[in-house]
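User: Can you help me understand a structure? I only have the sequence.
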Amino acid sequence: MLAGFRTFAKSPFAVILFGLLIVSFAVFGISDVFKGPRLSGVVAAGSRSVSAADFKTRYENYRKGTERQSGETLTADQAVERGIDRQILQEIALQESMSEVIRKFGIQPSDKLVGNVVREQMSNLHPNQRPFDPITGKFDPKMYEALLRENGMTPDSYQASISDEIAQTHVFTGVANGLHAPRIYAALQAAYGLESRDLAAFAINPATVERPGNPTDAQLTAFMKQNAERLTRPESRVLSIMRVSAQALEPSVTINPADVQKTFDFRKETLATPETRSLVQIVAPDAKAAGVIAQRLAKGDQPAVVASAFGQKPVILNDKPKSALPDRKVADAAFSLAAGQVSAPITGSLGISVVKVTKVTPGAVPSLESVRSQIEAELRVQGAQAKAYEQTQTYQDAHDAGSDLIAAASKAGAMVMTSAPITAQGTDQTGQPIPGLTPDILKTAFDLSSGGESELVEIGKGEYYAVKVEKVIPAALPALADIRPQLAQVWLQNEMTNRLQAKAESLAARVKKGESLEAVAAAAGSRVQRVPGISRENAQQHQGLGRDLLLATFAAKPGEVFSSRAGQMAFVVAKLEAVRSGKIADMARISQTIRPQVDSGLMRDLGEAARLGAQASLKTKTNLTLARQAIGVDTDALAKAEAAKSGKAQK
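Assistant: Let's start by predicting it. Here is the structure, written out as tokens:
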């Protein structure tokens, strides 16, 4: 249930750390774009508010997650065009509204619970990201703060978001546990899914339709204008990209054997496998009972039997190092015993207990040769990172002194690639992806003007880049001569499709006027095919009919005649001959099977209604203009463009 209510807007950190991808948001109306409420923040819900900087952080996390998933660069202008900015703003408004209402209910997770969840999440990160001391394994607040800072958050803001998640989870889980949809809901869905339809149809014979001749230039020019939006080539740019890569430099690093020995000596203890013990521990109510427990264990009595005599259960620990035992006195006693031995009563920090050691596994100290390759690999990485850093320093010094990107890269010995024209999506002008271009590089490049150069950007440990825009090629329709063969082929396919559709509609009209389906099919050089028992439950088995024909079949009334596309370029004339209800026994069985899904669906609807209700009751305010400015949109230029578009529409 927790996963069901964790959303992007309240977990921006999780988007980066766990790669969680944002699913579709429900889009509802909000304030007018250019006449938004005058707020100091982007969202105001009761006592809660979201600043422009916070909105930018959440938007950036969404953008990066989307780009990792799709490989497509998303600019701020594209986000506005696709309505993504509105969706994110509305989702944040809903989240903040719900959290404010829950706060008013008095539901507030304890600091201890929030801390436990934070530690659990930190423990689930990649080992290189976990904010724990690599030697002691203890939680490191400074590493934790630095990790959050890298992702645009502070401990307070992150823990507040976790607190909100826990509170919402408790509320919605409580509702969900007691919520069951009326049985009629499942029965109606079962009846809907099991309803079956009998279809009769014949395909239009392409041989009966006159094939179009080759198009003229005038026809192709007109076709280009009709499809200008699809055919216009997007803006592209010629880029010079400077890359410094520690990974690429690794083969050039020479390892000094003395450094290997020094590293081994320093890390010998951490590389060693510690001694472990398997043991049984029984907690005693007092010292006298502990003595009896020790005697009985020493005689060989079963630990479970001994423990039960004192109302206890034995604690069994298998293959644990000394550091894993929480009570230091118990640990000291256990690791002083041989296998099979029983301790005297131990008065530890957690009470009086007795332990019996069942197995001892000696520790092992590795030899230098057994870990040489591991240490050499680590030293090679470190050496390459140092080389990469030196290159960046040389590059930066030369660039600061006035050298352009290419000259500065040459002085640093760094790689430079000058590309062919590249779109913002990282493709060439034929739509093929260009390897080696990350979303971050593309975003940097398309935020620059012609001739502009970026700062040196670090994209990973030892990985850097800088970009120069050599040339900007504006979006434009290609010349007819450049695409004539391909365009002519599309025109012919389009024209043939139109003729087939017109033929299907004319034949369907004859059937509607009273001719039989068989007679019209025969006259058109075709034959009627019948497909009985098409239902929504078995629709997958009839995918060969095509999506359009299946949709038309389910939308038709009994006896209705219609024409439809059936596949890429095929058309049919069809008649819905019968509609049948499913069997009662099947409906009863499926009704019972789908009840959990129906309950879940009702819970989702109620959850969304609750969020919308919270937003309405609090009169939550949003400022779309400020949100757009936060992500780098020129709202003045956008307002003028919207006004111009509106003026053209009115004309």
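Now, to help you interpret it: The CA atoms of residues 196 and 535 lie 4 Å apart. The domain at 2-179+604-644 is CATH 1.10.4030 (Triger factor/SurA peptide-binding fold). Let me know which part you'd like to focus on.
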